[in-house]
């Protein structure tokens, strides 16, 4: 049965639509599409010369649209940015800081990474909000900072890594790694654990920080280059290197004992450096004196032997005269400095007088006892 909208439906139920709905109410209706097109055409005709669509008008519209489209390719690269121009999604060239241009979308697009900025990543510590201080404070992250040394000790290491996009590596930075900051942090932690694991704890805590930082930087750069990440590590800075908090007091006692040991060793070395040269100088002096005495004794012995040989030669020529002369010289040498008494063996009735008191050397008078003077003073 055909439907007719003339006073009722096919079932005679009054004026309704084909699905049984009544007529539309007189409320607000959406704008008619034909009406919108007609209004736009009227306005466009007002702008165009002659008030109607002519060949010249269409050309002007196309030129204006093309000009606007080409103008969308103008862009600015900030001082710390580097423009990376993509042509149909493929890397094409770099754009230095300043006002630049690329072909409009969708032919070319541009990415602006912070390629000239030095970035900082902290490992082993993080900034948290501190309501007590009304600001932010540093908190240790043991999961990142606790590391095992080569001599099986645990050390708490907090360090920072300074990195930037390598010159000419912006394309690799954007397309070869998905999370650059997370990659740098993971590589930094891995490199530090490897270097610490090959080292002893004592050099790390005392004077080998520069060596450790250099080794970590070289290992990180080697790893990132193997990824072709386009990242350059500029510096690794170790902020804190301590034993774990549970044993830090005992470790400081050990460090103090080691410092005392080194001080004692240095003092002993200083004393040895002073006393050993003195002993060597005295030994050299004694050796030189012995050599001099040796040469003197040998020379005297040679002189005496030569003199004896000469005397012997003379003795062989005149034994009696030589014997008498030797006797007289010997007596002169022996009795030359002593008191002499001469006795006449021919005087039989004369009693010899021996002045023994004059011959005995006189002794100085003995000093009075000190107690006598003291007793007299007390009286």
Give structural attributes.
single chain; 379 residues; alpha+beta; Tetrahydropterin Synthase, Chain A; four-stranded antiparallel beta sheet; three-stranded antiparallel beta sheet; 11 helices; rod-shaped; disordered N terminus
Main β-sheet description: 4 strands, antiparallel
Q: Show unreliable segments.
A: 1-28, 371-379
How many β strands by DSSP?
11
Shape: rod-shaped
Radius of gyration: 59 Å
How confident overall, as mean pLDDT? 76
Helix content: 40-55%
CATH superfamily of the domain at 119-243: Band 7 domain
Oligomer: single chain
CATH architecture of the domain at 119-243: 2-Layer Sandwich
N- to C-terminal separation? 172 Å
Which class of secondary structure composition applies to the elements?
alpha+beta
CATH topology of the domain at 119-243: Tetrahydropterin Synthase, Chain A
């Amino acid at each position: 049965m055909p439907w007719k909208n003339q006073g009722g439906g096919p079932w005679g139920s009054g004026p309704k639509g084909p699905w049984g709905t009544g007529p539309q109410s007189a409320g607000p209706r959406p704008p008619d599409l034909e009406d919108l097109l007609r209004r736009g055409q009227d306005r466009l005709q007002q702008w165009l010369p002659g008030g109607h669509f002519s060949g010249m008008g269409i050309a002007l519209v196309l030129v204006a649209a093309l000009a606007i489209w080409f103008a969308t390719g103008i862009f600015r690269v900030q001082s710390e940015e580097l423009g990376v121009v993509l042509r149909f999604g493929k890397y094409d060239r770099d754009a230095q800081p300043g006002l630049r241009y690329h072909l409009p979308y969708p032919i070319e697009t541009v990415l602006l990474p912070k390629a000239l900025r030095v970035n900082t990543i902290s490992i082993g510590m993080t900034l948290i909000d501190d309501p007590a201080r009304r600001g932010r404070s540093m908190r240790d992250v043991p999961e990142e900072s606790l590391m095992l040394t080569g001599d099986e000790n645990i050390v708490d290491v907090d360090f920072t890594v300074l990195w930037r996009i390598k010159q000419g590596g912006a394309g690799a930075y954007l397309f070869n790694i998905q999370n650059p900051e997370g990659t740098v942090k993971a590589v930094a932690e891995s490199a530090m654990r490897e270097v610490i694991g090959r080292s002893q704890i004592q050099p790390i805590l005392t004077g080998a920080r520069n060596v450790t930082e250099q080794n970590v930087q070289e290992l990180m750069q080697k790893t990132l280059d193997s990824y072709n990440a386009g990242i350059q590590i500029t510096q690794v800075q170790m902020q804190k290197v301590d034993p774990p908090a549970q044993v830090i007091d005992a470790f400081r006692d050990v460090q103090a004992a080691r410092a005392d040991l080194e001080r004692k060793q240095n003092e002993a070395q200083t004393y040895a450096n002073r006393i050993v040269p003195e002993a060597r100088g005295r030994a050299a002096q004694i050796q030189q004196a012995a050599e001099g005495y040796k040469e003197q004794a040998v020379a005297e012995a040679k002189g005496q032997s030569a003199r004896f040989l000469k005397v012997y030669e003379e003795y062989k020529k005149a034994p009696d005269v030589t014997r008498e002369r030797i006797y007289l010289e010997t007596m002169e040498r022996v009795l030359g400095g002593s008191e002499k008494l001469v006795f006449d063996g021919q005087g039989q009735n004369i009693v010899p007088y021996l002045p023994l008191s004059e011959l005995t050397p006189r002794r100085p008078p003995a000093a009075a006892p000190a107690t006598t003077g003291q007793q007299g003073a007390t009286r």
